[in-house]
């Protein structure tokens, strides 16, 4: 990776002006330093991230553990499920509308 020239305070001020963000000189200096630190760290990671290093999103392999979906006789009937519902209509729970009508 080619060496990166440091980000100057003037460049940060220009970007802040384009984004319509008012920043003091102290904030501009601090942000320029922070951005240069970030770029240096990205460059360091890029040096070791070669083709033989696989990309990872998590350091430990994850396996999604799910129970088997089994039909059982221990299910509620419509009447049992709706027995304590405050409102019901046509064998369904009746809930307040949250979206406008289209």
Descriptive notes:
By secondary structure, this protein is mainly α. It has three helices and two strands, in the order H-H-H-E-E. The chain has a two-stranded antiparallel ribbon with strand order 1-2. The protein is elongated and about 70 Å long. The model has no long low-confidence stretch (mean pLDDT 87).
Report mean pLDDT, rounded to a whole number: 87
Parts with pLDDT < 50 across at least 5 consecutive residues: none
How much strand?
under 5%
**Whole-Å distance between the termini?**
54 Å
Q: For the report, how would you describe the main beta sheet?
A: 2 strands, antiparallel
Q: Please work out how many helical segments DSSP would assign.
A: 3
CA radius of gyration:
29 Å
Question: Which properties best describe this structure?
Answer:
3 helices, 102 residues, mainly alpha, two-stranded antiparallel sheet
Helices and strands in order:
Blueprint: H1 9-18, H2 25-48, H3 78-82, E1 88-89, E2 92-93
Antiparallel strand pairs: 1-2
Helix pairs in contact: 1-2
Nutshell version of this structure?
The chain is mainly α. The protein has helices at residues 9-18, 25-48, 78-82; strands at 88-89, 92-93.
